[in-house]
Design goal:
The complex is a heterodimer of chains A (428) and B (212). Chain A is an alpha+beta fold and 428 residues long. Helices cover 38% and strands 21% of the residues of chain A. In chain A, strands 1, 2, 3, 4, 5, 6, 7, 8, 9, 10, 11, 12, 13 and 14 form a 14-stranded mixed beta sheet that branches. The chains are: A alpha+beta (428), B mainly alpha (212).
Chain lengths: 428, 212
């Protein structure tokens, strides 16, 4: 027997609640910082803290600083054109972010917060420039698609009649979710994503390419090409061909849709529907590795997006499958060398290594990401390694640098020992 | 000059954390109380999926929940000394989570009542479903939950969405079993009534119980 709210309750249950391992780690680190601050506050005295808490409760309801005030925006028309040509319409936000609409385009602001806004592109195109900030939270909707940005410049185009989406990223990093894309694809600067679920087509290529798109099936790509460009011939790659042989520019990825019942057109093993990120968030590490092997590790490493490679590497590390983790991380760096994931791979390769191999990877990570999310850990570990390897002359300056950056961190005690006694730390 | 150790610090850390990961909840509580430096991370890894799921299902798709999730763990480690039955750590976590959820709901309600802009209530648009209709239905559903009391809402989420038994709902809310049943039943009736009067949701809510 069905109950009145069965359908709504089912919707509530299906909400995603997992986080990628990287975002989970970031959240845990934020919690640790809050915990440390909480400890220091507690030492000031409970009575004093209570007094502040009472005063704070009264004041808390009011925006105490600009960070609590949602962004304001205005709809402005640029230029001298007195007509109603929407090509000149702009959304100007109070933090300096801008959304410029293309001709015959339509959009509205769904809401704002202190950290960003939600903009709905109903049709047409928009050129977006979001001011970067550490906790930026901007969302752009186009039909069923979501583009999540932190700070970036990109172009977004949506044709509702054809359900065709295109995102061209000029600067920064965005995450796109929606049909075919699934739980999320991360785009980096210079990439362009084209998604057409009705045609079961999804391509990620260079934003500056001549549009050499591989069509997995359905309509050809010629309708999307600007006038004057010739369509690419349908590729007839041998079974072992990869995206490069199929005519895509270097670095392009042809992510085929789930295409239920449709055979692969090039003889390659059908692309599995990857959801490693969610599985890792749920702790299903063994399942991730099993699925990866079933799909073919080599193929995955060649074609999967960076987010899935990160998740696979994490799962392999947690299962102590170091060889697989190392291989995945190396490929991640090779395919996405300038991305945050590619750079972070150096840190995790260091953790998998020992001795001088680990030293070299930590050094490389710190050279590439001096202020990256793992920089303090890398500094602490590198310092410890040099001390363990009997290199106090290398450990000592690192100990100073660590204490300058992170005087209360987990390696602080070891750093002080190195500086004062010159002894090898006992370990953390 | 010390000889290099055969096992790196990292290996020792991973091994010791892996060892703590394998202990049961009661031993984990003891490790927390003893100030074991690994305990917070292990506790986080063990319970954050549960906490995130409950917070998300309680607050809905419109909110960034990570601050609320961190608040739960802050409160957990602050109040862990009050847990008498160390084997009941999971229930304790659920209880603290619901306390945090109710606090968050009341805080947002107060901000709306005093006429403040919905700060930080940015629509989080990580896609839940590919179709627009389901997304809107979910949004309307949680707006309806915003209209019922925080305790009733908590009871409703735990009993009907999270599917906890009545006894666990009662423990999580710190109420008696009959009270928990009454809260969830009342919440269910109210949500049904409000949903049937919502233009967007009415089609999803039959007027009365139906046979399949």
């Amino acid at each position: 027997m069905t109950e009145p709210l069965d359908k709504l309750i089912a919707l509530g249950r299906r909400q995603p609640h997992g986080e990628s391992s990287r975002r989970d780690l970031a959240s845990f680190q934020a919690f640790e910082r809050r915990w440390e601050r909480r400890g220091r506050t507690h030492r000031l005295g409970v009575a004093l803290g209570l007094a502040f808490a009472v005063a704070g409760l009264a004041l808390w309801s009011w925006p105490s600083d600009a960070s609590r005030v949602p962004l304001r925006y205005e709809v402005a028309r640029e230029g001298q054109d007195a007509s109603d040509n929407p090509a000149l319409w702009q959304l100007k936000f109070s933090d300096g972010s801008r959304v410029a609409l293309g001709s015959n385009s339509s959009a509205h602001v769904g809401g704002t917060s202190p950290r960003g806004a939600r903009v709905v592109l109903k049709r047409g195109s928009a050129t977006v420039s979001v001011v970067p900030r550490k906790d930026g939270d901007w969302w752009f909707e186009a039909g069923p698609y979501r583009v999540h940005v932190i700070g970036t410049a990109f172009e977004l185009a949506w044709q509702p009649e054809r359900q065709l989406l295109q995102v061209s990223l000029q600067r920064g990093v965005v995450e796109v979710t929606g049909p075919l894309v699934g739980k999320g694809v991360t785009l980096r600067a210079g990439q362009r994503l084209t998604a057409a679920p009705k045609e079961e087509r999804l391509v990620i290529d260079s934003a500056h390419s001549e549009g050499s798109e591989v069509v997995a099936g359905g309509k050809s790509a010629s309708e999307e090409r600007p006038a004057g460009r010739q369509p690419e011939p349908e590729p007839t790659a041998p079974p072992a061909a990869n995206a490069r042989l199929a005519g895509l520019p270097a670095g392009a990825t042809d992510l085929r849709s789930r295409a239920r019942g449709r055979a692969s057109t090039d003889g390659l093993r059908p692309q599995p529907s990857l959801d490693f990120r969610s599985q890792v968030a749920r702790g299903e590490f063994a399942e991730v590795v099993r699925s990866a092997r079933g799909a073919g590790i080599a193929q995955l490493l060649r074609r999967a997006p960076s987010t899935e490679l990160v998740a696979l590497a994490d799962a392999a590390r947690y299962l102590r499958e170091d060889a697989l983790a190392r291989r995945t991380l190396l490929r991640l760096r090779e395919r996405f060398p300038d991305s945050p994931d590619g750079k972070a791979a150096a840190f995790f390769l260091a953790r998998l290594g020992q001795g001088q191999a680990a030293v070299r990877w930590y050094q490389r990570y710190l050279a590439e990401e001096h202020d990256g999310p793992y920089a303090k850990q890398a500094l602490g570990r590198l310092m410890t390694l040099h001390a363990e390897l009997g290199e106090p002359e290398l450990a000592t300056p690192l100990a100073r640098a660590y204490l300058n950056r992170n005087p209360g961190g987990p390696y602080a005690a070891s750093a002080r020992k190195i500086l004062t006694a010159g002894a090898t730390p006992q370990g953390e | 000059m010390m000889a290099p150790s055969k096992t790196s610090v990292d290996d020792r850390m991973n091994e010791s954390r892996a060892a703590l990961t394998a202990v049961d909840d009661a031993e984990l509580v003891q490790a927390i109380l003893a100030g074991d430096p690994r305990a917070k991370r292990v506790t986080w890894q063990r319970f954050v999926p549960l906490v995130r799921r409950i917070v998300r299902r309680s607050l809905g798709p419109e909110y960034d929940i990570e601050d609320a999730v961190q608040d739960v763990f802050l409160r957990l480690f602050t109040r862990i000394h009050t847990l008498r039955d160390h084997g009941a750590l999971r229930a304790f976590v659920v209880s603290i989570t619901m306390f945090g959820v109710r606090y968050e709901i009341r805080r947002r309600r107060l901000r709306r009542l005093v006429g403040l802009a919905p700060a930080a209530e940015l629509a989080e648009l990580r896609v839940v479903h590919a179709d627009h209709g389901s997304r809107m239905a979910l949004s309307h559903f949680y707006k309806i939950l915003d209209r019922i009391g925080a305790r009733e809402r908590s009871a409703f989420v735990l009993r009907h969405i999270e599917e906890l038994p009545d006894a666990e709902v009662a423990a999580a809310l710190g109420v008696s079993l009959p009270t928990a049943r009454r809260l969830s039943a009342r919440a269910y009736e109210r949500v049904t009534y409000l949903a049937s009067r919502d233009a967007f949701l009415a089609g999803l809510v039959p007027g009365k119980k139906e046979q399949p």
